[in-house]
């Protein structure tokens, strides 16, 4: 009788595991759905507060899913979201090629938002549903991406959307082009990289900036670089996007002109970094207090 009982228990274990997994997925679905809805609302409200002098380009929300399982991407997709971002080439390749994501998310649009080394370009450009590379930080890298895209997608005339990453804070720990090289690099892409579509400028900026000190200087620097690019190369402002703003500052970024914000932990929860005790820098950034928010309401920010 005892062996029969053990046998029954053993048979029931997979069912218990399935039930637990099912309950986790339902809970996870509800959490991701609520968080995503709340962020979309905040994005729309911030866009409504933008000065009328800024181009009326609806901001794009890129849900950054790094370190998160495919199930979470699928849940956000089922809630209507389409733009997702990854920081690491290998993780993006794995996720974008995941059979469940390929089957469940046919209209997904992947953004690469991490540092791109030349030896990883071919691997990245083979990603299914690659929508945009936001981190081109030199003319040489642009040339490599351009030639690889021409070779890999020879049968397609569709250009690859790219952004030029600018190191607005001047920190050695940050990647990106020195601000003074922006115009010449964009000019090179427009004239020499026929397989690429120049979509705009991107910055990460300094972590932990306190908005009580005024508008974020990194965002202001990117606005100035856009003004300079458009004036020098005769480009309409509304045709040059600005990718700036993350979980702790995306509303301010939108208010001053961002058209593309990259939000991860606020949608998907804290990230799981194996073997790293310190949290993501994004989580350590200062969140503006209510007092700071009131100060921000009195700040008028325009293109320079």
Structure characteristics:
13% strand; single chain; 46% helix; alpha/beta; 304 residues; eight-stranded parallel β-sheet
Tally the beta strands: 8
- Class per helix and strand makeup: alpha/beta
The largest sheet has its strands arranged as: 7-6-5-4-3-2-1-8
Per DSSP, the total helix count is 12
Low-confidence stretches: 276-304
- State the end-to-end CA separation: 83 Å
Percent in helix: 40-55%
The biggest sheet, with number of strands, parallel, antiparallel or mixed sense and barrel status, is: 8 strands, parallel
Q: What is the averaged pLDDT score?
A: 86
Morphology = globular
What gyration radius follows from the Cα positions, in whole Å? Answer: 22 Å
Order of H and E elements:
HEHEHHEHEHEHEHEHEHHH
Strand content: 5-15%
Biased composition (Basic and acidic residues): 281-304
Modified residues (N6-(pyridoxal phosphate)lysine): 66
Domain Alanine racemase N-terminal: 58-270
Keywords: Pyridoxal phosphate
Question: What does this protein structure show overall?
Answer:
- The chain is α/β, with parallel strands linked by helices.
- It has helices at 2-48, 70-78, 89-96, 99-104, 121-125, 139-152, 182-192, 217-233, 250-255, 265-268, 281-284, 290-297, and strands at 60-64, 83-86, 109-112, 130-136, 160-165, 196-202, 241-243, 260-263.
- The protein has an eight-stranded parallel sheet with strand order 7-6-5-4-3-2-1-8.
- Strand 5, helix 7 and strand 6 (196-202) form a beta-alpha-beta unit.
- Helix 1 (2-48) crosses helix 2 (70-78) and helix 7 (182-192) crosses helix 8 (217-233).
- The N and C termini lie far apart (83 Å).
- Residues 276-304 have low confidence and may be disordered.
- Residues 267-304 are annotated as: Disordered.
- It comes from Oncorhynchus kisutch.
